[in-house]
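Hey, I'm writing a tutorial for new members on how sequence and structure tokens pair up, and I'd like a real worked example in the thread rather than a made-up one. If someone can provide the structure for the chain below, I'll link this post from the tutorial.
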Amino acid sequence: MMTRNRRDGVRAVAVAAAGILLAGCGNAATQAGEDPEPKPSASVRQAGGTADPSGTQDPSGTQDPKEPQESGEPGALPSAYEFTPDPARVPKTAAEARRLTRNAALGEDDWTAGMVRHTPYESGGTWPVLADSCVWSRTALPAGVLDTFTRRIDIPAQDGKGRVQGAVTVTVHETVEGADREIKDTVQESFRCPAQELGSGQRLSGLMSLQFDPKDVRNADASLFEAGKYTGPGSGGTQDYVWTKSRIGPVTTAVSVKGAQGYENADLLRIAAEGGAKVLYRVELELK
């Protein structure tokens, strides 16, 4: 059973994360050179789009009353998430899923300026499993998962700061229920294993995970946040670690950021928020 101190810690971290991860990450899509949709959903707005190029309300007065209301401010989020995938665009086969995961996953030029490829850069087609020993391993994709794909992208060491390691994963399930189960299982893993071995001398500790209340999520159907500490080769000691996972229909996205010397937790949250908003935007483009 989780202690009161740990529950309070989860709440405190979640509140801090929500302020950055759920309130938007500025003009992420605009920075990436992407054109917003005429009537973008919440993920597009969080990634920098607006319903009108001027950032104002629909001047025609014909806005669908079912559409989330705009605040009129650039990058503002609506009061609810109402994007619905086009059934014809939802992958039904492994080949279709692989096409979506590759198109949606961020590359080094897509996340934030100056990022570079990690080595290894890409991996896919296997499933992570957390054993009772709290050591991660990989197996074949389980039934119900069409594809999963990861790209690893870093902020190189510079200006006296260490190397930040980022990763983006996109997974396609056969059903919404399967994707939702992945979200729920992830929350339980941090409580079962607050310390985890990633392999190759990498270790996470002090993990805290919390699924956001659906009413607070405005750029996906569901989202969770996880934070803790990271140590590993080249980390320069114990560093902060943040991780987010979200779901749009049967597709989940995950963004992790391993800190480095010279970076505060707030820096990592902003990096994760920018990557998270952009990959959700790209998933929507694949599904609309």
